[in-house]
Each structure stands twice: as structure tokens, then as C-alpha cells.
């Protein structure tokens, strides 16, 4: 389909795909790598949650440990990304590949060498690396010693890690993200995944999570300042899981509830990382929740000095909220909500809302006026391999096409959009469920929920479609 209005994205628009080390890299105990928080999470399903096991259990499947073994297939995979024409590839570095326990004084050379090889391969294929420094894989050693980001000491360990990779890759990587979906710490779900925090089963984790979030804010700001000192050409961004929220009705109670969700879920983290200070609406929220953020002298100055250069975010769906607690609820990314009768849903119940991406882009840009990039957007679905080996994922093509169209509309609205990296460009382990069955990729990987399969890569119909999208710079959809 050609977009008939002659629209085209900027010539330097960063088309690409996105992954996370903990979901696709594997090689969890190779060449000196230590155990990360994700390595301690079991498999799960749509109906059975993943478990956190502080001690390894024999005969238990941990999907992140092997994942799809990018560690052993990186040349093959990057060649496929190059064939699609990627301008950029969003990936993350496994912190424990560089500092196995998180608190070592010297980095692991074998781990550093692996990412040298990956970046060299990307550069050889004319692909710009976009690197997330911490993406749901904090060292489990820091959880054991300090209960993760609850401790302020972890800030220094993170900055040491940043210094090691900034100096090592200063001539290979330009674009960095400090934390993946940092705002996940605003919800109980994110305590372990985003903060490496173990909480008691019946514990209210609000105080621990928001204190940990403050520590990550300080760590991010210090990393931004350090990165710019090491290489002034670095562009360092934040990454927010944008939870687009609509009121269910024009009832003022619904309107206020939607506004409050947007403030705490999205704007709190965006304001601190982009503007360099806590928004005033946070004061009331903290007071009502009994949260007391422990700050040290100089923290406010650190936040001011470490504002990000650009704003990146994930967008999969929108949700609906209502003051009426009797309405039907549906699944969602991090947070669910009320069923929206105007939208279709994915196989996992996530409501599909392309126009919500246009609204979101405008909402973010109106507030911050800095460059934006959509670094996660995609459709988790059950793919069928036909007898001839083909995978006809037209539903994925439709999903991505409809969202790109709304990105075009947002750019015409005046939004400064840097790029788009479709999530899970190659099939990988689902973060929320630990499944392989929930597939996102343009590239199919032969592996199932139980770890069975030969890891063979094959191209889906969407592979060829996205290749043409990039080649035409969004003209041919």
C-alpha cells in the first residue's frame, strides 16, 4: 500500500528493530557472565505467572538462560537485520556480562569483547547501535547483598558499569538509554523486574519501589553527565513504558482518574529525567501513599545536571479507566484496564489502538519539546508455520502499518520523531509470561515454550514487507 499523500519521513529517520539481552541473548553462564535477575525467573504462560526463585531449582525451566542464543548466532541475526535494511538496532548490554556480581572493581574482559564483536558486526552492516544500559537484568548479586535498587550503594556500581562501557565503546555507540521502562517501578509488578527488589508476599512495596526509583533517577542523571564528558557526541535518552489512558466516560471522576494515572504512570519519570526535577503533583501522591523519599544533599543539583537528550518510549496499546469498579476488565502491558468497545484485541487481550500512538506522541512532545523515538511497538501473536515453511503474518503487517500511519500523522502535527524500532524484530522470550509462543518478530525462531527446537531462523511474510517500508522510507506501506 502506498501512502497517497506523498508524505516521507526525514532522510535520517532511524528505522529498525528492538530486543533485550535478557530475552534473546542467552549464554547466561558463558565467558564469565554472572546471574542476573532475569536468570532467576521461571517460565510461565498467559494464565500462569512467572516465579522468582532466589535459589536455583533443578528441573525448572528458566527461559532467559538460553533464550534464542543470540550469543551464538549474532552474526547470522545481524546479517538478517542488515538484509531488512535496518538503520538502527536497539539492544541492551547484559550488566552481568561486564560485572558478574555487580560490585566488582574491574570489568570482565571477555564480556566487553563480546559486545565489541557485536558492534563491529552492526557497523559492518551499516546499522547504528542504540544501546539500553539496563534492561530488566540487574545483577542478582546486588539483589542478594543490597536488595537491588533499594540501596543507594547500587548507584555507584551502576556508574562504574557505565564508565566501563562508555569508555570502551565511545567510538562505536552514539545512542544510549539509561534504563528500560524506568516507570515500571511505579507499579508493584516492577519491583523485581525493574528494581531487583525482593518483597514479602503481603508487603506493601510502595516505599521500597519509589525509593529505588529515586536511586535510578540519580544514577541516570550521573550517567548522562558522565557520558557527555567521555564523548560530547553521545545522545543519551530516557525510556518510558507509556501507559496511554482514556477516561471511560465524561464523568468528571473518570476524567480525573485518567489524568492522575497519566501523571504518576508517565509524567513523573518523564519530568524528572527531561526537566530535571520532581513535579509538584508527586508531593500529594507520596503523602497519601505514606512514601518518604530519602534524598541526600546535592540530589536536586544532580538531577538538574543530568537531563536526557531525547525521550524514547514503548507503546503497544491504550487502556481505559473508570471510577466504576463493576466494569469488565481486560489484560494489558504492565497495567490492564476497562474493555474498550471501539478496539480489537490481540491474542493476549491487549487492546490495539494505532490512533492512540498519535495521541501519545503529541501528548509527550507538547510537554517536553525534545526529540522522540518509538523504541518498542509490536504485536505478540501465535504464528503458524505452513507446510511449505511460509509464515503468513498479515495481522502483524496490519498492526505495524496502522501504527506507522499514525506516526506520519503525528509528524505532520509537528512532533519531532527520530525513529521507530519495532519490538522483538526476531522472536524472543516474552518478558511478562516467559513464553516463546507469544511471538513478535519479523524473523521466526524454531523454539517452543519448553525450550525445544533447533533455533533455526526463518523469514516471515512481514520480513519482506518491513524491508520495503525501510527501503521506501515509509512511502510504501
Automatic annotation (TrEMBL):
PROSITE patterns reported in the protein's UniProt record: GLYCOSYL_HYDROL_F1_1, GLYCOSYL_HYDROL_F1_2
One of the GO biological process terms: carbohydrate catabolic process
GO CC annotations on file: cytosol
Keyword Hydrolase: yes
Active-site positions on this chain: 376 (nucleophile)
SUPFAM superfamilies reported in the protein's UniProt record: (Trans)glycosidases (SSF51445)
Swiss-Prot/TrEMBL keywords: Glycosidase, Hydrolase
Keyword Acetylation: no
Similarity annotation: Belongs to the glycosyl hydrolase 1 family.
Protein name: Aryl-phospho-beta-D-glucosidase BglH
Matches recorded under InterPro entries: GH, GH_1_N_CS, Glyco_hydro_1, Glyco_hydro_1_AS
EC code(s) of this entry: 3.2.1.86
A molecular function (GO) term: 6-phospho-beta-glucosidase activity
Amino acid at each position: 500500500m502506498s501512502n497517497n499523500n506523498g508524505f516521507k519521513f526525514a532522510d535520517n529517520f532511524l528505522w529498525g528493530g528492538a530486543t533485550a539481552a535478557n530475552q534473546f541473548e542467552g549464554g547466561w553462564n558463558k565467558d564469565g557472565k554472572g546471574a542476573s535477575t532475569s536468570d532467576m525467573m521461571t517460565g510461565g504462560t498467559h494464565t500462569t505467572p512467572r516465579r522468582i526463585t532466589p535459589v536455583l531449582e533443578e528441573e525448572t525451566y528458566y527461559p532467559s538462560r538460553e533464550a534464542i542464543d543470540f550469543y551464538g548466532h549474532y552474526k547470522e541475526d545481524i546479517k538478517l537485520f542488515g538484509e531488512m535494511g535496518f538503520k538502527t538496532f536497539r539492544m541492551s548490554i547484559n550488566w552481568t556480562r561486564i560485572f558478574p556480581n555487580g560490585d566488582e572493581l574491574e570489568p570482565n574482559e571477555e564480556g566487553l569483547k563480546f559486545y565489541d564483536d557485536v558492534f563491529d558486526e552492526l557497523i559492518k552492516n551499516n546499522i547504528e547501535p542504540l544501546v539500553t544500559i539496563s534492561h530488566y537484568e540487574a545483577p542478582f548479586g546486588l539483589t542478594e547483598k543490597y536488595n537491588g535498587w533499594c540501596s543507594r550503594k547500587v548507584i555507584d556500581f551502576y556508574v562504574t558499569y557505565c564508565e566501563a562501557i562508555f569508555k570502551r565503546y565511545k567510538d562505536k555507540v552514539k545512542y544510549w538509554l539509561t534504563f528500560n521502562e524506568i516507570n515500571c517501578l511505579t507499579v508493584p509488578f516492577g519491583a523485581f523486574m525493574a528494581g531487583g527488589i525482593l518483597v514479602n508476599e503481603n508487603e506493601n512495596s510502595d516505599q521500597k519501589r519509589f525509593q529505588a526509583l529515586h536511586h535510578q533517577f540519580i544514577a541516570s542523571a550521573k550517567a548522562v553527565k558522565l557520558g557527555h564528558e567521555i564523548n560530547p557526541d553521545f545522545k543519551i535518552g530516557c525510556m518510558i513504558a507509556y501507559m496511554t489512558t482514556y477516561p471511560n466516560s465524561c464523568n468528571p471522576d473518570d476524567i480525573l482518574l485518567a489524568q492522575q494515572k497519566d501523571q504518576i504512570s508517565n509524567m513523573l519519570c518523564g519530568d524528572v529525567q527531561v526537566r530535571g526535577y520532581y513535579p509538584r503533583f508527586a508531593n500529594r501522591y507520596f503523602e497519601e501513599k505514606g512514601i518518604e523519599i530519602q534524598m541526600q544533599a546535592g540530589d536536586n543539583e544532580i538531577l538538574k545536571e543530568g537531563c536526557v537528550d531525547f525521550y524514547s518510549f514503548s507503546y503497544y496499546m491504550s487502556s481505559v479507566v473508570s471510577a466504576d469498579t463493576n466494569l469488565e476488565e481486560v489484560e494489558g502491558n504492565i497495567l490492564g484496564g476497562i474493555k474498550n468497545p471501539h478496539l480489537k484485541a490481540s491474542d493476549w487481550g491487549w487492546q490495539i489502538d494505532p490512533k492512540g500512538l498519535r495521541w501519545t506522541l503529541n501528548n509527550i512532545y507538547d510537554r517536553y519539546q525534545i526529540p522522540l523515538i518509538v523504541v518498542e511497538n509490536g504485536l505478540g501473536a501465535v504464528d503458524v508455520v505452513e507446510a511449505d515453511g511460509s509464515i503468513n503474518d498479515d495481522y502483524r503487517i496490519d498492526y505495524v502499518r496502522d501504527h506507522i500511519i499514525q506516526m506520519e500523522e503525528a509528524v505532520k502535527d509537528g512532533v519531532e520523531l527520530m525513529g521507530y524500532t519495532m519490538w522483538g524484530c526476531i522472536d524472543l522470550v516474552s518478558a511478562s509470561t516467559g513464553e516463546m509462543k507469544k511471538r513478535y518478530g519479523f524473523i521466526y525462531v524454531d523454539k517452543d515454550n519448553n525450550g525445544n527446537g533447533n533455533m533455526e531462523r526463518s523469514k516471515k511474510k512481514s520480513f519482506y514487507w518491513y524491508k520495503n517500508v525501510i527501503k521506501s522510507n515509509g512511502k510504501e506501506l
